């Protein structure tokens, strides 16, 4: 069983240039919930000054559809965000820092150490309220400002996050430049220290290598992958901001490889289409096969 | 050392709806030759009634730029095509059939057996003239008309092609539906019979799995991959006609994984751009990193 975590409502929608109406977001989440996910990242409690796209996080949280076996996660940047999230009765929160000092500074205006110090009070406050905590580490492979990131830098942050009480760490290829050898190198360092079921891969598909990286992760024992319906997330022209690996493309590969996920890829694809946004996933461009028209026409084009 | 065979001038351009001027094709091939390829599939001698896009194959052949260590291949459908190719002093030809009977009928108006019978006279005629022969097998995994193809069907055709005198067989995922387990299943059957250096993978990226499939092929010992600059080849809305895996995306992954190819990915990407056609490859959409503008702007968006 592979756990695919749907990050579209948060990681996908936070990068849209236009404001999506709350009702449309909730419709998106409803359809995703119908698809059978165990976990959906619903929104973010980052200050609306920084992400106006998710300024309706309270309203979204108050209207999430209940489904047996489905947990919603919300992103919280700091204690203030956590308190707002707790007031909305969230089940699970995600915190985030980076493996690259420069990225931490640019993305959150604070050092990795300052983030970890904050988390030392934030995490117990969450878990003490019965809310579990997931940790994200951005730029685990390549940083848009520093370039190559050493796996040891990821290990240090990972170690601290688990010590502080997160139950899972999601390893982010934020700029989407990793290739399977990078996945192998990092996991070779982490897996002797942490159980595979506590690690997730959060891959972006900037260079088209996301599914190859998923394969390497699978081969090494990773069973949790973050993805975004439709491949939503970021403009391909913005540095380091390409979309997450598309949920339906990931589900296609996993299902055809014989893995079970419990998620219906067709419903996920429909959820993404209902948003009416441009979608980058391959499955959205896929023709129906076999194609009746082609059946009666000799092609003779030497296709292979 | 990985051998990447550039198929863009043939497999890419044969699927364009507009007629590309011969001079532009030759410019494309010139730039690809400058990139350092060992092998480029330059054109096809399929009758222009079926592929008007490559009706200028003779003119293209007569003007191919010579480069030390570079061989050009041309596609030939039958003896007549071979004779036309031989008259142009070609170095290497490629013949094609399929693993699926229905696809063979639709694509070439003849059965697999009829094709093999033709090849029994075509191949000796080519090799007797000092021209080597590559064999393509289409629909090695999924056929748009029959669905799943059994690896045994591929084995039978592969066996015959080698018996008849081809020096290499390229295994085509024509509709681009294969996933890494399909690659593994087929290669597990073929590799005990044929040396890995006689097999190539010819992958299309319809479902976004091409690079994951390349990875599985690499892991199993395959060292030759066909690709197309810019990911050219076919309209995403035409059933089974999506583009080849993009050469520059493939080269990016291979080079970052530490493999040598002798090919300059930047020059390949430039060759594709010079055509002025829409390109599907990830590398063509890639921003330059690090991006100076972003350096001075805090993002604070919780990106990972």
What's this entry about, in short?
Chain A has a single domain, classed as TIM Barrel (Alpha-Beta Barrel), CATH 3.20.20.
Structural descriptors:
homodimer; 304 residues; alpha/beta; TIM Barrel; 8-stranded parallel beta sheet; two-stranded antiparallel ribbon
- The radius of gyration computed from the alpha-carbon positions of chain A, rounded to a whole number of angstroms, is 19 Å
Strand content of chain A: 15-25%
What oligomeric arrangement do these chains adopt?
homodimer
- Summing up helix and strand content along with how strands pair, one would put the structural category of chain A as alpha/beta
Q: Can you count the beta strands of chain A?
A: 10
Describe this structure in words.
2 copies of one chain form a homodimer. With about 300 residues, chain A is α/β, with parallel strands linked by helices. Chain A has a single domain, classed as TIM Barrel. Helix content of chain A is about 40%, strand content about 15%. Chain A contains 12 helices and 10 strands. In chain A, the strands form 2 sheets. In chain A, strands 1-10-9-8-5-4-3-2 form an 8-stranded parallel sheet. A two-stranded antiparallel ribbon of chain A has the order 6-7. In chain A, helix 8 links the parallel strand 8 (about 170-175) and strand 9. In chain A, helix 7 packs across helix 8 and helix 8 (about 180-190) packs parallel to helix 9 (about 210-220). Chain A is globular and about 45 Å long. In chain A, about 55% of the residues are buried. Chains A and B meet through helix 5, strand 5, helix 8, helix 9 and helix 10 of A and helix 5, strand 5, helix 8, helix 9 and helix 10 of B.
